[in-house]
Write a structure and sequence with these properties.
With 83 residues, this protein is mainly α. The chain has one domain. It contains three helices and no strands. Helix 1 packs antiparallel against helix 2 (41-71).
C-alpha cells in the first residue's frame, strides 16, 4: 500500500510545483499589465481570476497531500514531508 501511496504523493507534489510555477507566471503577467500606461482591465480581471483558480487548486492539493501523509507510517512521513 505504501508504494502506491508514495506514487500518489509524488504525483501531487509534482503537480503542485507546476501550479506554483503557473501562479508565479500569472503574478508576473498581472504586474506587467498593471505597469502599462493604459492597463487592459478585462485582461487584468481574467488574469486575476485565473490566479485565484490556481490558488484554489493548490489549496485543494495541499489538503489532499496532508491527508495522504497522515496515512503513512511515522518513519516515512518525515521523508515525504521533505519532498
Amino acid at each position: 500500500m505504501s508504494d502506491s501511496l508514495f506514487k500518489r504523493i509524488a504525483i501531487i507534489v509534482i503537480h503542485m510545483k507546476s501550479l506554483k510555477n503557473r501562479q508565479t507566471i500569472l503574478d508576473g503577467q498581472i504586474e506587467v499589465e498593471h505597469k502599462r500606461r493604459a492597463p487592459d482591465q478585462e485582461q487584468l480581471r481574467w488574469l486575476k481570476v485565473r490566479r485565484l483558480m490556481v490558488r484554489d487548486q493548490i489549496a485543494r492539493y495541499e489538503s489532499i497531500l496532508q491527508d495522504l501523509r497522515s496515512l503513512l507510517p511515522t518513519t516515512h512521513s518525515r521523508k515525504v514531508a521533505l519532498a
